[in-house]
Amino acid sequence: MWRAHDDKSADWRRALGLAICLALAGCGSGTPAAPPLAAKAPAQVPAAPRNPAPETSAARPPVTRSDQPRASSTGDEAPAFIPAPPLNTSLADLAEQARQREFDPPVIDEERVAAAGIRKQPGKHLTIYTDLPEAEAGDLPALFDAAIPLWCAYFGADQAKLADWKIVGHVMRDKARFVQAGLYSDALPPFPNGYSQGSQFWIYDQPSEYYRRHLVLHEGTHCFMNRWLGGAGPPWYMEGIAELLGTHRLDGDKLALAVMPATSDEVPYWGRIKIIRDEQAAGRGMSLVEILRYDNHAHLRNEPYGWCWGAAAFLDGHPATREAFRGLKTKVKDRTIDFSLNFLRQLEPVWPQVKEDWQLFVLNADYGYDLARAAVVHLPVIKPLPAEGATATLAADRGWQSTGYILEAGRTYALEATGRYDVASGPPAWPCEAGGITLRYERGLPLGMLLAAVRPEVQSGPVTPLASPKPIGLGGRLTPTETGVLYLSINERAAGLADNRGCLMVTVRGE
Questions:
Q1: Are 171 and 143 in contact (CB under 8 A)?
Q2: Is 81 within a domain?
Q3: Which of 324, 354, 375 is the last residue of a domain?
Q4: What is the spatial distance between Cα 509 and Cα 486, in angstroms, rounded to a whole number?
Q5: How many Cβ atoms from other residues are within 10 Å of residue 55's Cβ?
Q6: Within a 10 A sphere around the Cβ of 416, how many other Cβ atoms?
């Protein structure tokens, strides 16, 4: 409680100091750094830079001092710009008020900005300051305005509350101009490509219009979450969700977020799938748990952005994880290891399936990857193969599918396939049989060819047997090295499943 009226000034100073300390305890996004998943919390560290440049971007110059004025007070009384609180204002309320002031738009000297050769591009919610020529900059404020209802829909926010929300973005080709104009402060940490804080973000110009828009949406996601959700979670989620919602498709004035790019040409200089492919090829593939352990230093390198995008895209798109992943938006104020550990506990009943599908996603990372159709289909009941054999039906528009039949290690089985199906709905359609189509190859085998693998209930190796199947075609033999369930698939990219039609019948007999 507050003291008598004549002691109000002293209590106000103490409360204000505590409130500001609580509100500004973090760095960058206004929240403290998250410790690794399986480690004790580290000492406080500086905020990690965000959005490293694509592989072709040049190194950026170091941060230099700006003469942007800073607020100050004598310490003898409340600063003049902060109204005295009601006598019954709690410390928590004061902390929240101080936190909200962090999101007030900055005061900018427009004459000084213009004198530095920087243009102002106003918008309803976003004002851009840039030294790019008008013909190159694009309409980034309109892009931001179009993203707001999509962010609100994804995070379940009330769009009406955002009616007066305004932030400032800086798109810089020559950083020295922004230092000269007082738009770039030495309080900012060095960052390779983009950074956001409070109601502002800064990005360096990019070699493609797409990637410039991607960075605006990425940093805009940070600003949205910190302002309207109260936080952005630990590093893997904070960067993963910003990468997910920054990956977009713009068709005229119609914007879509969280898209799976269909081709590399659609997203020039984005490079996230390339990162996963290159890292996997170099023997540096990452498990989901390893990604969830990223600390606040991880994103000083480029590779974690690719892995965080991959994890977010996978968890958001996989039918077994989507609900739990999207539920994390209600917990983003928590940047401790509990955020990630509680999420993993939610996934425990489906973890073997999730772990296996993640391996297949990484091994076959591709543009247009259809996570829902590529998810392995498991049957709730498995049984030994009958003595007379059995027949299973295989859908052409899904990935690996369980037959439900157990095959024994060391025993040879004969498989025969019948039926016709389309591996492209066309026009024109591509009719196919289990031998595949030799006009096009995938993974060194004819497109649409029947594949088989035996999956033990408990895997003995680090990688799922589904990653190294046996070609069967119209007919073939299979001798498992381990007892397990027979799984079948046609040879098809995950990106090509959606336009397949039909099914084939596969008969299995023991010899």
A1: no
A2: no
A3: 375
A4: 12
A5: 11
A6: 18
Contact status, residue 306 vs residue 272, Cβ threshold 8 Å:
yes
- Same domain as 383, residue 366: no
C-alpha 166/C-alpha 175 separation (Å) is 23
Task: Say which amino acid occupies 430.
Answer: W
**Letter for the amino acid at 347?**
L
C-alpha 486/C-alpha 490 separation (Å) is 14
Residue 129 φ then ψ, to 5°: -115, 125
Neighbours of 438 (CB within 10 A): 10
Model confidence pLDDT, tens digit, residues 371-396: 999 999 999 999 999 999 999 999 99
Determine the 3-state secondary structure of 172 from DSSP: strand
pLDDT at 87: 58
> 161 exposed, middle or buried (CB, 10 Å; 0-12, 13-18, 19+)?
exposed
CA distance 506 to 359: 26
Q: For the sheet with 167-172, list strands across it.
A: 119-121, 126-130, 167-172, 200-204, 194-197
E-assigned strand segments in 435-474: 437-442, 445-447, 450-455, 470-471
Retrieve residue 56's tokens.
């072709």
d(CA 483, CA 339): 38
User: What is the extent of the structural domain holding 486?
Assistant: 377-510
Query: Which DSSP category does 434 fall into?
Result: T
Given a contact cutoff of 8 angstroms between Cβ atoms, the answer to whether 386 and 409 are in contact is no
Residues 266 and 395 both lie in one domain = no
Phi, psi of 508 (to 5 degrees): -120, 130
Q: Are 240 and 225 within 8 A, CB to CB?
A: no
Q: How far apart are CA 460 and CA 454, in angstroms?
A: 12
Domain boundary pick from 349, 375, 401: 375
Q: pLDDT tens across 290-316, in order?
A: 999 999 888 888 899 999 999 999 999
Establish if 8 belongs to a structural domain.
Answer: no
